[in-house]
Amino acid sequence: MLEEPNYLLEIPRLRVQNANAISSPLTWGFPAMTAFVGLMHTLERKLADRDVAILFDSVGVICHRHEPQISTATFPRTFRLTRNPIFQSKRDVQSNRPAAIVEEGRTHLEITLVFSVRGDACQSPENEQVTRQIEELVHTLRIAGGTVQPTRNPRRRITRIIPVTEDAEARPKEYRKLLRQWLPGFALVARDDLLQSHWKMLREKNGDSTLLDAWLDLSRLNMECHLEESAGTGKEPTVHWEPRRPAGWLVPIPVGYGALGPLHDPGTVAAARDAETPFRFVESLYSIGQWIGPHRLTSPKQLLWYPESDPDNGRYRLRNDYEPNVYA
């Protein structure tokens, strides 16, 4: 479990264009949290190359605007696609036929990134120079495959390192003030507990229900048929269709990867991206997430995600310590 952070790094109101909207083979919409954890590791490595003593432990995302690039004229929705370049190969040029479209999902975002950080740079009186370097560095990187755009808001807060008070009595008031600064927006938190409880409920009705059934049942809008008897009138019962879905803005999300086979020695797998790191074939792991207003949280810790690896069991996933029973 993640410890209460001593320092938070806030990068507010980033505008990201054409981020990857296909988060896994089964889900689409907001980018996967693994993309933001990857950004966290990239930031840490690039700052180390600049001799900046700062370490990153976890990352949280508050989404202020989400604009998927889809066509709304038809149903089901389709992505707006481009064909670049027109001719992809010599065969296409000779046949004078345009290259096939490779489907990719894109979305425009406005997000605030929150990192739990530590290190000498957090306590340095010159940490404004550090935050300036981080701000400049983020604008040169890709976020979930998207390009960071210059800000259009002259009143946008600058990147800052926020020390967290050690006074347990003062923390709740400080947290409330901090969390409300990230409104309007929604933070993504994990609801593994809800997935397990829903699976238990389905098994009480049908003992053959699987965890996949519970995941699908929580991911969709279910319509239930209700019959309303007409007492004493002799008429046929009236049929009503009503939606059934648990309370809250629930979404299916990928949370990491599970191994499909053993680790292979570096350089033994053809076309691997890195010839110096052991290679493993994996598939996506899924769970349920919930979008929740930051003001409903009691601590920034509840919106932070951190990696948890278990190579012996072939599990590489992300964790989030959100507790639904903390707030009313």
Structural features, described:
The protein has helices spanning 33-49, 90-95, 120-123, 127-138, 171-180, 192-205, 211-219; strands at 7-20, 55-68, 70-71, 78-79, 106-118, 142-143, 146-149, 160-163, 186-190, 222-228, 238-244, 249-259, 282-292, 305-310, 315-320. It has 328 residues and is α+β, with helices and mostly antiparallel strands. The chain has a domain at 1-71 and 103-212 and 287-327. A hairpin with a 6-residue loop joins strand 3 (70-71) and strand 4. Helix 6 (192-205) crosses helix 7. The longest helix has 17 residues, at 33-49. It is globular. The two termini are 23 Å apart. The relative contact order is 0.19. The model has no long low-confidence stretch (mean pLDDT 86). Pfam families: Cas_Csy2. It comes from Thioalkalivibrio paradoxus ARh 1. This is CRISPR-associated protein Csy2.
Overview in brief:
By secondary structure, the protein is of the alpha+beta class. The chain has helices spanning 33-49, 90-95, 120-123, 127-138, 171-180, 192-205, 211-219, and strands at 7-20, 55-68, 70-71, 78-79, 106-118, 142-143, 146-149, 160-163, 186-190, 222-228, 238-244, 249-259, 282-292, 305-310, 315-320. Strands 1, 2, 5, 6, 7, 8, 9, 12, 13, 14 and 15 form an 11-stranded antiparallel β-sheet that branches.
- Give the helix level as a range of percent: 10-25%
SSE order: EHEEEHEHHEEEHEHHEEEEEE
The counted number of beta strands is: 15
Number of discrete helical segments:
7
Largest sheet: 11 strands, antiparallel
The pLDDT mean sits at 86
Poorly predicted sequence stretches spanning 5 or more consecutive residues: none
Give the CA-based shape.
globular
SS-based structural class?
alpha+beta
